[in-house]
Amino acid sequence: MPAVLDAVPIGEPAAAAVAAGGILVTTRPTPPIDPARRVRQETVLVRPNRLALHDLVEAVADGRLRTRVAATFPLAEAAEAHRRAESAGLRGKIVLVA
Question: Name one Pfam family in it (predicted).
Fold first, then answer.
């Protein structure tokens, strides 16, 4: 992938997913990536902000920001969603819907 946002952060698996010459954006400092891969690393610190959240929702809605969704669960199945989130091999986000 040309760019990866590691918001959890999971560390090495996210770094490994970035293509040579790409960018890794994390919410916490991470170990350096091999310079030969030419991967730019950026760390961002975020505080809750209503306007920023609105902008993110719009970016998702119009396709400027994309994320992989692994599974969607109704709120009543939150416990199962949590178990799935803890399972090995999860690729993408778990979404709870009301």
Answer: ADH_zinc_N_2
CA 32/CA 49 separation, integer angstroms: 30
Q: In 3-state terms, what secondary structure has residue 48?
A: coil
Name the nearest CA neighbour of 32 among 46, 47, 18. Answer: 18
d(CA 98, CA 80): 15
What residue segments make up the domains of the chain, in order of their start? 1-66, 68-98
Distance CA 67, CA 11 (A): 17
Q: Which amino acid does the sequence have at 94? A: I
**Cα 70–chain centre separation:** 12
- Is residue 59 classed as helix, strand or coil in its secondary structure? helix
pLDDT tens for residues 25-81?
888 888 888 999 999 998 887 777 888 888 888 888 898 888 889 999 999 999 999
